Amino acid sequence: MLGEFSYCNPTKLHFGKGALRFLPSELAKYGKSVVLIYGGGSIKKNGIYEQVIEILNKSGKTVTEIAGVMPNPTRKKLEEGIEIARRANADLLLAVGGGSVCDYAKALSVSVHCKEDAWEKYYLRFEEPSCEIVPVGCVLTMAGTGSEMNAGAVITDSDAKLKIGHVFASESVMPRFSLLDPTFTMSLPRYQMVAGIYDIFNHICEQYFSGEDDNTSDYIAEGLMRSLLHSSRAAIKDMHDYEARSNIMWTATWALNTLIACGKSTDWMVHMLGQAVGAYTDATHGMTLAAVSLPYYRHIMPYGLEKFKRFAVNVWDIDQAGKSDEQVAKEGLAAMEKWMNELGLVTKISSLGANEEMIEGIADAVLVMKGGYKVLDRGEIVEILKESL
């Protein structure tokens, strides 16, 4: 393991059935003003909102709400939330929902006391916060992003058609606590469940497909991927299989809490491609990743052949006897495609609303990362996007 790193993750997790019972003790650590953040109202239909409100009231908190956080939170919504949180003099931001709600809360946490334009500072100049950061807590209702245990926050400028993620360097941006009850994910539609599963899988891939040394992080990543493959197949057979759903939820957290990035350069080009598609189509995040993954991985495979061969053998159990490294690697990607089809994932960006006229604009919106096996030029980005159609 050749990489050098520092590692710290301060988020406290409460996991399992009835995890909400830990909310009162966590709330007691913060001041009276709580800003409750949630999405389109599903938590009111499934009863989670009522449970959370009851706990907040019994804890003596003054509650201000920010509702309607969309699946791809926008700059405009962030600006709206900043004003609400400032007026409330927020002591804690409590996100109840999926990854987008958690992302939004973290973006808000560094923006409430920021004296500059938050979008300009954090998402265009990629600066770090120099102001007070409002603490965040999460009650997770969807497994996928890993946002409950990291410092990342993705925001979209709809007018500029830019969807940008900022992984903040400060540990203070990470949620102070997160409550993970797998039963809270049971009411999700199948489409959202499988999109979340692929988001998890690709988070692991983005970190795995980098570096050439013998790295412990890669062994952990392979175990997480194998667990996810097993649990995903069980979950699509029975969406109320608690064991499968709990394993998926736990894998999601470890896929992106920075542990398996230790000692790695990491890639993230699938996310850059998928987020650019999402900025143009407003499609579900996990599906945008699925739609661009195979063309991208087939394109970079020759540059990281040894790792793609290892992926085929250690994750997909491909028999390598009598085959070239390239044959083995290709069979691994074919097995991945078969699994994606089994789950019902979208594998073409045209199915998400993208068309050939958008390709040049989408390509312009792609941020080029340098941690993977091939640094893409613009021509390659256009080629991959066209193949994704």
From TrEMBL:
<protein>
    <submittedName>
        <fullName>Iron-containing alcohol dehydrogenase</fullName>
    </submittedName>
</protein>
<dbReference type="InterPro" id="IPR001670">
    <property type="entry name" value="ADH_Fe/GldA"/>
</dbReference>
<feature type="domain" description="Fe-containing alcohol dehydrogenase-like C-terminal">
    <location>
        <begin position="194"/>
        <end position="388"/>
    </location>
</feature>
<dbReference type="InterPro" id="IPR044731">
    <property type="entry name" value="BDH-like"/>
</dbReference>
<dbReference type="InterPro" id="IPR056798">
    <property type="entry name" value="ADH_Fe_C"/>
</dbReference>
<dbReference type="InterPro" id="IPR018211">
    <property type="entry name" value="ADH_Fe_CS"/>
</dbReference>
<dbReference type="GO" id="GO:0005829">
    <property type="term" value="C:cytosol"/>
</dbReference>
<dbReference type="GO" id="GO:0008106">
    <property type="term" value="F:alcohol dehydrogenase (NADP+) activity"/>
</dbReference>
<keyword id="KW-0560">Oxidoreductase</keyword>
<dbReference type="GO" id="GO:1990362">
    <property type="term" value="F:butanol dehydrogenase (NAD+) activity"/>
</dbReference>
<dbReference type="GO" id="GO:0046872">
    <property type="term" value="F:metal ion binding"/>
</dbReference>
<dbReference type="GO" id="GO:1990002">
    <property type="term" value="F:methylglyoxal reductase (NADPH) (acetol producing) activity"/>
</dbReference>
<dbReference type="Pfam" id="PF00465">
    <property type="entry name" value="Fe-ADH"/>
</dbReference>
<dbReference type="Pfam" id="PF25137">
    <property type="entry name" value="ADH_Fe_C"/>
</dbReference>
<feature type="domain" description="Alcohol dehydrogenase iron-type/glycerol dehydrogenase GldA">
    <location>
        <begin position="10"/>
        <end position="182"/>
    </location>
</feature>
